[in-house]
Amino acid sequence: MLEIFIFATLNGIVTGLLLFMLASGLTLIFSMMGILNFAHASLYMLGAYFAYSVSIRLGFWSGLIIAPIIVGVLGALVERYGLRQVHKSGPVAELVFTFGLAFLIEEAIQFFWGRDTKNYQQPEILDFALFTLFGQEFSAYRGFMIFISVAIFIGLYYTLTKSRIGIIIQAAITHPHTVANLGHNVPLIFMCVFGAGSALAGLAGVIAGPVLTTFPGMSAVLGSIVFVIIVIGGLGSLAGAFIASLMIGLLQSYAIASNVGMPDLLNLLGISFERSHPLNDLWTITLPQIAPILPFLLLVLVLVFRPSGLLGKRE
């Protein structure tokens, strides 16, 4: 039992931090610009495919550097020549634009890379067991994922709250004319912020590609959960997104590792159903079976009791 709990916790932390890597870019964009980018998960997928192509010729580590830069530049161009024009028509137009962009990226990936799963592998230097516990190995690559995720959180938090750049960015949101009068290029600031958020999505794709496999539908696997994370954590809250990511990662990991179901609960209550009863199939559901919907149930509870999210200020 202790063995299951420890490895469920480790796997939950890895999953949660991977989700945070993806959610951090979306949180950055929303907190700085107020834009909910529906194409964010598609940029994450694009990062994985760029990294795969680069790794074939130059190796994994080159892809780790080059792919996020390419995705970041593409994101900056999208903001400059797309979102900036659409912004005049309001937030609904921005949502529709990013929604369409997500489909465009997915079709482009299938056109250039095909519909098959790519053999994107983790680097050989990290292909070993970091430690062994209860006869099970914890890979060094998973430890690397944890390190990168924590480094992103610390770097972003320091940049946005302690550095001069973060102060200028936050001032540009609330007082753009004042910041412009001080000699700062506000449109350029917003373009760089969107590009940085896109680069973070690309970095998440680079890291996740070898673990979650690289295929055209990988954005759909995590895309909806990312929005759940930023709502639970609080729209625009980096610390909230970090906590929500870990909560969801651990919640799903514990659910999958457990063997608890409705029969156990019904037995405790002294309730039983005959096989011919219409509700018999419903009450035989186990916790691992409903693990994928647990984040959405958590979202509903948070919205009911705290609409602004755990650490959010916007409703």
What does this structure look like?
The chain is mainly alpha-helical. It has one domain. 71% of the residues lie in helices and 3% in strands. It is built from 12 helices and 2 strands, in the order ααααββαααααααα. It has helices at residues 2-33, 40-58, 60-86, 91-113, 140-161, 164-174, 176-181, 186-212, 218-233, 238-257, 262-269, 294-305, and strands spanning 129-133, 136-139. Strands 1-2 form a two-stranded antiparallel ribbon.
Write the layout of secondary structure elements.
Layout: H1 2-33, H2 40-58, H3 60-86, H4 91-113, E1 129-133, E2 136-139, H5 140-161, H6 164-174, H7 176-181, H8 186-212, H9 218-233, H10 238-257, H11 262-269, H12 294-305
Antiparallel strand pairs: 1-2
Helix pairs in contact: 1-5, 1-8, 1-9, 1-10, 2-3, 2-4, 2-8, 2-9, 3-8, 5-6, 9-10, 9-12
The fraction of residues in strands falls at under 5%
Uncertain segments of ≥5 residues (pLDDT<50)? none
Neighbour order of strands in the largest sheet: 1-2
Number of strands: 2
How confident overall, as mean pLDDT?
85
Radius of gyration: 21 Å
* Largest sheet report: 2 strands, antiparallel
SSE string: HHHHEEHHHHHHHH
- What is the overall number of helices? 12
Report how far apart the termini are.
41 Å
- Structural category is mainly alpha
Give the tally of structural domains.
Answer: 1
Helical amount: over 70%
Outline, from the CA principal axes? globular
